[in-house]
Amino acid sequence: MRKRFVAATLLTAGLGLSSAQAALPVGRSAPAFTLPASVAGHAFTFSLKDALRKGPVVVYFYPAAFTPGCTIEAHDFADAMDRFHALGATVIGVSMDDLATVTRFSISACRSRFAVAADTTGAIASRYDARKTSDQHAQRVSYVIAPDGRILSAHQDRAPDSHIETALATLEKWKAHSGH
Asked: Given CA atoms 134, 72, 120, 18 in this order, what sign does their dihedral have?
């Protein structure tokens, strides 16, 4: 176990990946989760474990559907989905909104291009150190998780636009160094 952690840490250090301001460190195993989710208005159960079998996963937490910053971020992720798919990545947005709200958000703001999940209790946001302590919202934090479950990058920034480019840069570096 220790050897794998050291190897993952060295790999990510060698890739120049960062953990800018986010609480979960690069190289750590990402907490597994299963949540109700929606894509293109269709509800389903999202499992991180199942998604990682297909390739890397970008998990991004956002404060609340239909707010200006969160809508901008969702539009930007939707616009970049071809780039994420070319890198073999799955994208999942997570908020503390209910399933009905994320279902509507999946169509309008996400433009039916990627899934969003309902973490109504905030338990998953808490496990990812992405929950605001003062209210019932998540912080704007994004993680890129390798197929082996290790965190490749963690990015926290209130500005929504930096999350997409940070995730894409991480995935490009990972792909170049992993041979995928």
From this structure: negative
Q: What is the CATH number of domain 2-178?
A: 3.40.30.10
Mean pLDDT of 100-113: 97
Give the tens place of pLDDT for each residue, 17-36. Answer: 444 444 799 999 999 999 99
Tell me, yes or no, if 70 is annotated catalytic.
yes
Least confident piece of the model among 5-14, 136-145, 150-159: 5-14
> Pairing relation of β-strands 90-95 and 34-39?
unpaired
pLDDT at 4 over 90: no
What is the rounded CA–CA span in Å between residue 61 and residue 158?
A: 11
Query: What are the residue ranges spanned by the domains of the chain?
Result: 2-178
Cα separation, 30 vs 14, whole angstroms: 20
**Catalytic pick from 58, 70, 94, 96?**
70
Selection from 104, 115, 113 nearest residue 51 by Cα: 115
